[in-house]
Task: structure prediction
Amino acid sequence: MRRAVNLKNIIFCVISLFAVIVLNFFLPRLMPGDAVVNLVGLEGEYVSAELYDYYYVSLGLDKPIFTQFIKYLGDVFTGRLGYSYGYERTVGSLIGERISATLQIALPAVIISSLLALYLGINAGYKQGGLLDKTITGASLFVNAIPSFLLAIILILVFAYNLGWLPYGSLNSPDAEVGWFWDRLWHLVLPITTLVLLSFPSKYFMARNCTVAAIDDKYVIYAKARGLSNAKIKYRHVLVNVCQPFIVMVGTSFGKILSGSVIIETVFSVQGMGTLMTGAIYSQDYPVLQGCLFVTAVMAIIANLITDVVCVALDARQRLGEANNG
Amino acid sequence: MKKIFKALTCVVISAFLCCASLGCSNKGEYDDTLRVGTLAKFTNANRSEYDFDVISGTLSQLAPVALNGDGSFSPLLTDWTTSENGLVWTFTVRDNMSWHDGVAVTAEDVLFTFNYTDAVEGANWLKDAVGTDLSVTPKRFLSAEVSVDKRSVSITLASPMPRLLNGLTALRVMPKHVYANGAGYKLAAEVTDAQSRIGCGPYAFDSFDKNAATVKFTHYEAYPDYSSSVKKVIIKTYSEDTIYLAMATGEIDIIYNYSGGVPAAYAQYLSRNQSLKVTSLPSTALPAVLGFNTDGAANTSDAKELVKNVKFREAVRWALDYDNIKSLFGTNYATSPNSGIVPVGSVGYATTQALSRDVAKPEGLLREMGATRNVGDEYYSLGGKTVEFNVIYRTNKAVNARIIEVITSNLKDVGIKVTSTPYAVLGDYQTALWSRDYDSILFGATAYGMSGGQGLGTTYFDGNNSTQGISQIKTSEFSTIISALSSAKNSDEYAAAASACQAYYASYAPAIALYYDGSLQVYSRALEGFHVDASFGLLNVQTFKTLTKTK
Result:
């Protein structure tokens, strides 16, 4: 039965991916204005008739729409993802060059914020109204209300400007050959911390509220009656039940973290996908925007799929159900 | 879970401490290194990348000559002489100049650069330039010839060009041995990154580190007349949120912002730091100008005839409170403008009447035009319509909206109504500009723009300029002045024509400069030996020959 659900999810992911591809293809063609100008990413007034004709043919706009779509599919599946006339390079190579910088910030941020939120959320929820609950919940509400750029600047002011412990930005120092790893880590502390703080509150509240709901459940009352320690109840029983909605949330928040990196990368002068997108917005480089949107969507879909697999792996009822039905 | 969390906490804290201690130990003193902070974002390091091209023009790639802050010229790669009739210019490559790959720089490189930019970039030095609309811009040089010893190139002009040197300050001379392809030319994409970085300035390209957001240059030992103590230059990109903090903590020695300075609010904050120096460079840019559509042929608004009327434009000019505008929007170094628009320090500057507010004058001028205002009326009326006009502006600078507010308020005081149309998208603004369907435009004029065309801001005001031409002056008097400027045989003749031009601006009021301002520069007090360049500011090739950094 569970396998069927998974298959359904996989089919849903494929449909989502196809929808993203179709949207990406039609968006610049349906937007107000001229498709050539939208795809080339130049101001219409700068394009002479001669140049316009050149782009019109180069972009394949003289071909039937179906042929254009097949060509676009080819671009997507070969990883070319279109051509940026602003950078005079394929979008795939531009993103490939920068995605590692983005992931170096985003992946640790997802992992750290999730573990932190899960641990603190369960502990705060287990003793609802306690000191930990009041402190972390209050602080989370506060942090949640701070815009990302402001939070980044506050951290820079404290740790880079006043204390001088951490650098203002970029991914490494010039000439950082000796101690490269630590130098990179040193540069990553502030951007990762900013993203962790930004994504922490929503996850924390999910873990906390699920725990609060769970402590009145019969299995918890029964576990307490059996004299199990609080740690065992929290981490062997409550955790398993909190995990599933929590992991689903972590999966769906991955896309949010990627989009949050637009601000973070700009403030910390990191040349990742976020700054690529920012530049593309300013220069109206639609092929780059399309490429970034596609890659972000693919990563979000993959994160959801992984989430689904992890949920099954963690949920004994689903595993057992699957075995019984198998 | 608890164990995992504790382990994770320990790892994070240890890593943080390690990194922090490493970071602190990394802050060594580099007395022979100049650390420059910039907002430019280098996506690559080759000549076709705009930001790299600009920064390398300050220390690595040389133009034939440089424009000094006082409006005079200095030899950079070449010295020059001019014939008595102003028709023959000879440029001689300075002694011992060589490219960073060791090849000697010759006059053939200079001539090659003229030909290359004609062929590849559509310039019109030795060849007529044909636009995409098939319009022809005639060539500026009749011929050019390299001397036998290959040290000089003699250029013969069709007519005298007193502003020729001005046009050469932005021309980066190219190594012929890199860009020549037999009798043809190699395009930017056909040369390697390493080849495209070859210059002949005091510093040679060393490395580009995208992750560190830095471009590094090292001193080129073979460069002649070099006395600087700076052996390395590291240009590092910061965000606008961090660059001024980095300056305050001494992480960088100077901020470089091409064609701009440090905003007044930040400069004021940084000036309190004892280790930093704030200075104002004279600027030939105009931070804010109100330009009128004086021709109005394509203007469809009701105010068309109003803004065409010199008396009305004069009335507006008298109504504005320049002292208030400069104190609100300028730095401490801002000054009130002149009726001749062109700021002090511009080539050909002539003194014209200083502008000030006199609310009685607009009333007289409006009544002379036939406008009436009954007791209790907020605005004047003319021909049954309220005396009003529209100002269009771009929203990319937040200050523009505030300036419009002050203009509206000042003019309301004298019975003139102002409406405004903001443009967020550059393309939309350009469409409006090029349609010429506007009453007036609030804009900023760059130093480069002010020196374009025949200089003195003619680019912005001449109705024959298809790209800018904001004020659309199409009068025969102005055409005569433009002709006089373009045909001046020497600087005296140019100065006479320039004086006439500014007198014409003063009487015709095609635009109003709202204030003049300097460009604020912030740098470490450890630095000495700056030379001011009108194009590049403090950081320029001449500075890099003499700059010293003390402990």
